[in-house]
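Entry 14. Ran structure prediction on the chain below.
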Amino acid sequence: MLRDLYDVNPGITESHGSIFLYVYSKGLVLFKHEIMGMPIGRKNQLGCLPAYIHRATTPWVAKFLSGFYDTDGSVKLRHTPARAYPRISFAQKVRGVVADVKRLLNRFSIPSTMYVNSYLDHRTSFLETRWFLDINGYENFRLFMAHIGTRNPYTLVRIALLGLEGS
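Output, structure tokens:
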């Protein structure tokens, strides 16, 4: 995707269960920072989503949310004593970004729950705080997939394995 969008060839490494892409392009960094308003450095420096995302057209916002989900979201079946139901979940270190995504989901009438959780990250041995946004239930899963969806092959396979593709 980076090759198609920006004509750059990333370096790829894997460490502690994460994949890192390295791109050495001053032009790309300046574009992301000066034009798109993204901070230089770690993504947790981004306190909220840039204003142009909130002003964007609804189809553009749907594509943005799909890409956001494809990079930082997950899907699973949540088991309760009564039954199992699907849960789409996003997690970020920054409250403002999660709150902005929640507001964007309101455009599509997709209800969600936002909460904070701290846990010990066994990869780093540090206490980490994450803000979560969950979309729960079959109807909300259908709404999300109909309006936003996913292009991530791993997620598409997971949805099929969970038996949710027809939901």
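The beta strands are 11-15, 18-22, 73-79, 84-92, 113-121, 126-136. Will compare against last week's run tomorrow.
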